[in-house]
C-alpha cells in the first residue's frame, strides 16, 4: 500500500513512559529501519536505495556527517540513515488541492511532525501579500519575483541567504557566489547554531576549525573520550568505529549528563553477538557531569597531568612537542596551579575519585582522541571549553600522530563542506581575493549577519528579503516566538525545500516555496546526469549520485534553483555564466578548483573511488597556521552555570526518531518514551525536592536576566537518572525557552544546553497549548 498523509495531528495525551534502555541497535534497530522502508518504499525501491547509501558509486546519506570506512559493508547505513532515506524517497506527494484546503492560519497550528508527514513538495507555490493560502506559480515567474524584490532593495545588506548543512558543495559554492555577486556577506547558516564554537576555538588554537583525525585513527587509539554527544541517536555508525577500537584494545570514556543507551552497550546488527549476545560494552567509564561542568572537569584533568609531571619530571609531558610546536605552556601551568578543587566539585558534581580515575586512563594512554558535539558547543563558555580540550591533548602531544587528535562530530551531512565552500558571514580576505580574481568582481568585505544576528536584523526591520537554502530556521533557532514575529516582518521569504516545515507556514508578506530534488534522486541537466559532492567530519570529500527518478517533473535541483534566482536577479552582471554552471556541474567544480585550496584537481579527484581527503596542517605535518605559527596552549577563566535554589539547568536535545527538526515518529525508545514529545526529564531526587511527582503535568518557565519569563505549558515530568540539578527536553519544542540574547562568548551560538528553568503545576493538560512568553 502507498503511504498516506497524516490526517489528524497528534496529541500528547497518550504519552507512555517505560524504563530507559541500556543498549542500542541490535535486532530492534534493523526492524525499526527496514519495516518502515518496506512499507513506504516497497521491496525493490528499498533494495536499490539501501544498497547504495554511503557506497562509492551511490549517494551520501543525508543524515549525519559520520565518515565512511575504506572497506564498505553491504549495509553501510544506520537506523536513522535508513529513516532519512524513507523520509526523502517516499512516493507520498503534496497534491495541488492541499494548498486550497489548508490556509496558513490553519497550518500554523500544526506540529513539525504533521507538516513533515504530508509528503514531498512537487511544485513551486507562492503566497501573495495579504493572502492566507499558497497558490501554484511557474518557475520563471518565481525567479522573476525574487529578482524584482532583490533589485528593489536600497542596499544588498537588506537581504540574507541562509543555508542548511544538507546542501552539496556545488550548491553551497554557487549560493555564496550569488550572495556576494549581489553584494552582501549575509550568509547565516546552521553551523552558527551548532559547531560555531568549535570553529572559533580550534582556529585560534590549532589554525584549523576541523577534525585533526582520520577515520582509521579510531582503531589506533588507546583512549577515546566522548564528550557531550549521543552517538546512538545522532550518528549511530560511530558506534561501529568505537566497537572496532575496543576490539583493538582502546578504552572509552563517556562524559554526558544523561545516560545514553548507545554509550552504555552496543549490539552491532552486523555481528552475531549483536543478535544473540549481550553486544559490546562501550564506555569503560561513564561520567555524568553536571550541565556546564565540562570546562572545570577538563581543567581538573589537566591539573592532574601537570601534577604527575611534577612527581616524575620528564616522563609525563611531551616536552619536545611542547617546545617545538606550542606556546603558552608556562602561563597555562601557572594558571592551573591555582585551580580550586571546591569550585571544580561545585561545577561538575563529580567526586574526586572519578576525576582521578579518568586522569589515570589519560596518563596510561599514548594515543588519545577526544570527540564532542553540541553538548559542548552550546554553552556560554563553549569556546573556552573547547580550548581546554585542545590544551589537554597538547600536553602529551596528542595532535598530529596516528590514533590521536581533536574530533568534533558534525551533525548535518555537509555542514562542514558548506563552510569550506564559503558559506560564512566572515570569510577571510584570502578567500575573497581568490573569488574576486576568478569571477572578475570585488566581493563585499563587510562582515554579514549570522543566524542569531539575522533574527535580530529581521526583528529590527533591517532585512527585507530572506532566502533559505534548505533547513528549517524557525524550527532550529532559539527564542522561537521572537524569531517567528521577526520573519513576518520581511517583504519576501523564500524556502528551497523537499518537505513542509515550520519555516513555510510563518512567512513574510509574500512567500515562495521552491521544491528541490532530494539526494536520492537523479539530477539531469542539459549536459546529462549530474553528481554532487560532500565533505564529511574528517575532511574527506566524496561524490554522491542520485539513484531514483525525481518525485515530480516540476522539482529542480538546488543548483538549478540557485542559478535560476541568480540569473533572474543579476543577468550578465560581472559576466558570470549562471546557466552554464547549471547545465554542467563540472564547470562549478572547475571554478572551485581555482578558488579553494585543496581542490586544485577537483574534477579529477572527485571521480576517484572514495574521493579524496583535504590537507590538514595539524594532522598531516604538525603545522599550525595560528597567529604565532604554533599550537596555542591557552589560559581560560573558569565559569560554571549558577543555578538558584528551586531551579534546574535545562538542555535541549533530540529524540531517537528525529534528525534536527525533522520528526520521524513520536517515539524515543532508548529513553522509554512513546506516543508523545511533551516531556521533561528530571532526576527523581530533584523532583522530590521540588515537591513534584513523577508523571505530573507542569509548566516550564525559563528565567534570564531581567527579561519576561518564557514558558512551555503542559509537559509531563519523567523521573530519569540524569545528573543532579539538571533537566532535558526535546527541541524544537523547547527552543522557545532559549533567549535569543543568551549566546556563547565569541561564537554567538545559542546557549541551548544551559537554560535556567523552574517548574510549576500545569495550567492545562499535557500537550495542550502553544509555547508562549508571559
Task: Write up this protein.
Helix 26 links the parallel strand 15 and strand 16. This protein is α/β, with parallel strands linked by helices and about 775 residues long. It has a six-stranded mixed sheet with strand order 4-3-16-15-14-5, with helices on one face. A six-stranded mixed β-barrel has the order 23-30-27-29-28-31. The chain has a five-stranded parallel sheet with strand order 10-7-6-12-13, with helices on both faces. It folds into four domains: about 20-90, no CATH class; about 105-190 and about 415-615, Rossmann fold (3-Layer(aba) Sandwich); about 195-410, 3-Layer(aba) Sandwich (Dimethylsulfoxide Reductase, domain 2), CATH 3.40.228; about 650-774, Barwin-like endoglucanases. Mean pLDDT is about 95; it is low at about 770-774. It is globular.
Question: What is the compact description of this entry?
Answer:
The protein is of the alpha/beta class. The protein contains 32 helices and 32 strands.
